[in-house]
């Protein structure tokens, strides 16, 4: 079953999440309304979210503030919304209520490729997801919806159907440029075709086939083809290359091992980094954060609470973690709001940066900017969450009428993890631009946590039982910082690096500190480090890899000696 498409507009994603729990009959009505709405959207108009919700659900919500959705973003996500509603309702083909076509059938009738048709689904062509008896799902496009789209985009369909062949002169120019892309950037035939398709206004597949034919002709003449490719490396191997890069392995070593060009290795690493970033769930941010420009964000990040977030201890034993969470930390209102605004702004900026990165040839500088912003946001978020840990424990014990110290380790860990997950949602819901304190949304979110069936009654204090259960040391504790910032898991450095900085060259240890924000300082991008040290970004990258290798080697030495 193909995965559901992602809804990029946060307001529509929230609406889709809320409608998951609607009755089936309501979902069927909602998807029909959303489908008809596509024909009325003006790309240049902004629509109030209240109006969008009313048009889809027939219910007019009472929103506290006006949220506007651009027509372009709304139309781009309507097909994804309809697919989610169809999937939630378990729509069957006999329930479509009219003639329809499969995506491949419609593409053939319009004489376009399936990829072109998929692009048009982001431009107002609405598809429904139909469930079959074997559990599989297929896309079906209502004939009425297809004809309405064709009427609105007649010129677009005409250009696509009448697309001309690539003439000889244009083809020769494409081949010459593709050779430069390969030699200078390490592009594969697919990567070169994607860049050329944008430049010449052609489909990527048509350009790729042209390049393949050119290489076949070169081989027939006894010449070396431009793209002497050995096939795409398996996904598992590509992930291994990215892990090796994060451990400081030099690209030259991977060039020899995997028989790829240096540019090809960098491309694989950057594609894996982009894939990781795009898969992250960054959570909700306050509406004001999305509208901040670079100048406003810079002002927020210059405030002292954002520049020096307190280091977050991470107890590894469950008893130690519970004791750590019970310790009282009095939050300071001014610091709390400053940190929350900076954290929301960093996540919002990272989301914009990720959306701006090209999938064809991801730019390393943008990837580094997004990753650094998210590391910084995670550090600030941990400092914020630290002030709420006691509230999490007290609210769990009060609302569930239990004592975490008098529970089995696995049960206590389950509830602590649930409480920390609720803390994350409470922090997302907190809007520091509106006033109020973080404790309010956090307490509300944690109070909604429910214990697994049978757990609460079994562990209520005062209950007569043959042996009193008590939490003892020896049980592993979850990393509480990753539970409040789960998107940071793949972006943080190896945890061993923090403890061995004093065992390696002081200059390399200092670089690790500022690069990854260890010990309560803000993390830096490679560009920032290069500017501070007056070196090139490439030199800064080599220095970082050297520092990571030295740190991991010191950590292994310490482990062996112990």
Count of distinct structural domains: 5
Overall residue-averaged pLDDT value: 85
Name the beta content range. under 5%
Which strand order do you get reading across the main beta sheet? 3-5-4
Give an overview in words:
By secondary structure, this protein is mainly alpha-helical. The protein has five domains: 10-161, no CATH class; 168-220; 235-278; 287-491, no CATH class; 493-562, Orthogonal Bundle (Arc Repressor Mutant, subunit A), CATH 1.10.10. The chain is 60% helix and 3% strand. The protein is built from 28 helices and five strands. A three-stranded antiparallel beta sheet has the order 3-5-4. Strands 1-2 form a two-stranded antiparallel ribbon. A hairpin with a 5-residue loop joins strand 4 (128-131) and strand 5 (137-142).
How would you summarize this macromolecular structure in one to three sentences?
It contains 28 helices and 5 strands. With 562 residues, the protein is mainly alpha-helical.
């Amino acid at each position: 079953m193909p995965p559901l498409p992602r809804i990029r507009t946060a307001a529509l994603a929230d609406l889709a999440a809320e409608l998951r729990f609607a009755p089936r009959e309501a979902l069927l009505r909602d998807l029909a309304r959303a489908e008809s709405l596509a024909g009325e959207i003006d790309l240049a108009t902004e629509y109030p979210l209240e109006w969008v919700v009313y048009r889809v659900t027939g219910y007019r919500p009472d929103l506290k503030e006006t949220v506007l959705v651009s027509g372009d973003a709304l139309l781009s996500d309507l097909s994804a919304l309809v697919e989610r509603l169809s999937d939630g309702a378990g729509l069957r083909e006999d329930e479509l209520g009219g003639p329809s076509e499969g995506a491949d059938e419609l593409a053939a009738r319009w004489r376009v490729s399936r990829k072109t048709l998929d692009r048009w689904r982001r431009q107002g062509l609405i598809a429904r997801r139909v469930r079959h008896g074997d559990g599989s799902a297929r896309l079906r496009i209502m004939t009425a919806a297809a004809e309405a789209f064709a009427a609105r985009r007649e010129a677009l369909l005409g250009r696509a159907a009448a697309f001309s062949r690539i003439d000889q002169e244009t083809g020769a120019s494409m081949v010459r440029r593709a050779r430069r892309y390969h030699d200078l950037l390490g592009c594969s035939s697919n990567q070169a075709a994607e860049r050329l398709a944008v430049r010449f206004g052609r489909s990527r597949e048509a350009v790729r086939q042209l390049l393949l034919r050119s290489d076949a002709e070169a081989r027939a003449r006894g010449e070396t083809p431009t793209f002497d490719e050995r096939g795409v490396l398996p996904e598992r191997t590509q992930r291994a290359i990215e892990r090796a890069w994060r451990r400081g392995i030099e690209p030259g070593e991977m060039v020899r091992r995997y028989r790829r060009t240096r540019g090809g290795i960098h491309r694989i690493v950057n594609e894996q980094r982009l894939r990781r970033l795009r898969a992250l769930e960054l959570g909700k941010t306050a509406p004001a954060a999305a509208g901040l420009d670079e100048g406003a964000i810079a002002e927020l990040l210059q405030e002292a609470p954002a520049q020096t977030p307190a280091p977050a201890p991470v107890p590894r034993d469950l008893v130690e973690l519970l004791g750590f969470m019970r310790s009282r930390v009095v939050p300071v209102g001014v610091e709390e709001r400053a940190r929350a605004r900076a954290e929301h702004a960093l996540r919002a900026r990272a989301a914009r940066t990720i959306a701006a990165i090209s999938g064809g040839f991801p730019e390393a500088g943008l990837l580094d900017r997004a990753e650094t912003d998210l590391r910084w946001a995670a550090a600030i978020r941990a400092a914020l969450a630290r002030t709420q840990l006691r509230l999490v424990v007290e609210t769990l014990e009060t609302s569930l009428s239990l004592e975490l110290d008098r529970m089995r380790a696995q049960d206590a860990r389950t509830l602590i993890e649930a409480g920390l997950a609720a803390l994350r949602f409470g922090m997302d819901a907190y809007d520091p631009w509106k006033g109020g304190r973080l404790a309010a949304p956090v307490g509300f979110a944690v109070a909604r946590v429910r214990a697994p069936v049978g757990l609460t009654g079994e562990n209520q204090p005062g209950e007569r039982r043959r042996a009193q259960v008590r939490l003892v040391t020896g049980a592993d504790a979850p990393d509480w910082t990753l539970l409040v910032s789960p998107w940071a898991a793949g972006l943080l450095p190896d945890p061993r690096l923090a403890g061995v900085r004093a065992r390696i060259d002081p200059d390399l240890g200092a670089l690790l500190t500022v690069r990854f924000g260890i010990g309560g300082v803000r993390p830096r991008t490679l560009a920032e480090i290069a500017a501070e040290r007056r070196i090139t970004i490439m030199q800064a990258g080599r220095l970082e890899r050297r520092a990571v290798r030295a740190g991991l080697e010191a950590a292994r030495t310490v482990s062996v000696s112990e």
